[in-house]
Design brief:
Arc Repressor Mutant, subunit A; two-stranded antiparallel sheet; 4 helices; 2 strands
Length: about 120
């Protein structure tokens, strides 16, 4: 990275950004999150230990806690046939309502941009 000084500021036009972005596996992110969750250590300490950004680790911890809460909230039993049928019906209904909302949004935009002309009603 070239950070030549132009006066007191770095000449940022020569700096390449994002060229070395690291990607972490799901297993690594989960393990890192559990280092915070299970041990009670701070995100800052674990982030320094693993050489990752604190905000990234915080997001991983938040996501893992949500996943754990979701697993605890379910009974672990599969859905019954009636529950599955209701789920399918509700998903269809939501999809249909999404289509209706999209259409109504387009119609509202059209009428907002093209107001109807007033006719002389005698």
């Amino acid at each position: 990275m070239d950070t030549r000084q132009a006066g007191s500021r770095a000449d940022w036009k020569d700096v390449t950004v994002g060229a070395t972005r690291r990607k972490f596996t799901l297993e690594f992110r989960t393990e890192a999150a559990h280092r915070v969750i299970d041990t009670g250590r701070t995100v800052r300490d674990v982030a320094r230990e693993l050489s990752v950004f604190e905000n990234s680790l915080s997001k991983w911890v938040r996501d893992e806690r949500r996943r754990m809460e979701t697993l605890e909230g379910t009974s672990g039993e599969p859905l019954s046939s009636a529950e599955r049928a209701e789920l399918v019906r509700l998903r269809r209904q939501v999809a249909e309502q999404d289509k209706d909302l999209a259409f109504l949004g387009k119609a509202a935009a059209y009428f907002a941009s093209n107001p109807p002309k007033q006719r002389d009603l005698r």
